[in-house]
Design brief:
Belongs to the ThiD family. By secondary structure, the chain is α/β, with parallel strands linked by helices. The protein is built from eight helices and nine strands. The two termini are 18 Å apart. Bound molecules: pyridoxal-5'-phosphate.
Length: 256
């Protein structure tokens, strides 16, 4: 069995963050481990508060995992501030795990910032070069590149810019554009498009977390990058189709 680690924030309502990641890992038959960087008091409607875990505790959690257990893949989600990013980046340099999938989480669906805006430059300089694959949505790709992205062609231009920042592969998720949900993968040589029909539902809490975790699990299980993305996209599409009407707001994706 492969062992996959998530480094991310905790969503007490169980739909996003660490909780979505661990459910996704279990559904993919990999052993899930977690380093918690922030405790987010949130539900399907709103974020109440965010308690950032101090960098020393994050470093200790990462050491605890790596000094004892073989790590076959890593997913990184919410990183709240510069200090957390520097800590995680240093540990990635120290342990050099394979298959790091970085979801550059910035804002929750309800509009609450999960990353301090002044950490953007640190995210670019310290985290992007440590990632095998990054999975920004359109607003995140716009923030990282400074571009306005409204077409598939602009998604490709943004992916090329992001690759120059040091990551090995870029998957820009097109769900924020209208029509089918088309994601573009760029590996520095070719572009691949992954299309899924748009599902009409308000229950989409945790979709980004689920997709990036599924990719990390698929990579750890030995799939090539494009196959890992294709299978993960199919997984998240099914998870949205069967999303649970839990809570009063955006219900969570469902894991099989
Ligand atoms: N809460 C945490 C802890 C997260 O890591 C994320 C990740 O994107 C979210 C919330 C976002 O949730 P939503 O899918 O509702 O935007």
């Amino acid at each position: 069995m492969k062992n996959v680690l998530t480094i991310a924030g905790s969503d007490c309502s169980g739909g996003a963050g660490i909780q979505a990641d661990l459910k996704t890992f279990a559904a993919h038959g990999v052993y899930g481990m977690s380093v918690i960087v922030s405790v987010v008091a949130e539900n399907t409607c709103r974020v109440i508060s965010i308690k950032d875990i101090p960098p020393k505790s994050i470093a200790d959690q990462i050491d605890a995992v790596f000094e004892d257990i073989r790590v076959d893949g890593v997913k990184i989600g919410m990183l709240s501030n510069k200090e957390q990013m520097k800590t995680v980046a240093d540990k990635l340099l120290q342990y050099r795990p394979r298959g790091v999938v970085l979801d550059p989480v910035m804002v929750a669906k309800g509009g609450c910032a999960l990353m301090h805006p002044e950490a953007l430059e640190t995210l670019k300089k310290e985290m992007l070069p440590r990632a095998f694959l990054i999975t920004p949505n359109i607003p995140e790709a716009e923030a990282l590149t400074g571009m306005k992205i409204e077409t598939a062609e602009e998604m490709k231009q943004a992916a090329a810019l992001l690759l120059k920042m040091g990551t090995q592969n870029v998957l820009i998720k097109g769900g924020h554009l209208s029509g089918d949900a088309v994601d573009i993968l760029y590996d520095g040589k070719e572009f691949s498009a992954f299309t899924a029909e748009r599902i009409q539902t308000k229950n989409t809490h945790g979709t980004g977390c689920t997709l990036s975790s599924a990719i990390a699990a698929n990579l750890a299980n030995g799939m090539g990058t494009a196959d890992a993305v294709k299978a993960a996209k199919e997984y998240v599409t099914t998870a949205i189709r069967h999303a649970l009407p839990i809570g009063k707001g955006h219900g969570p994706t469902n894991h099989f």
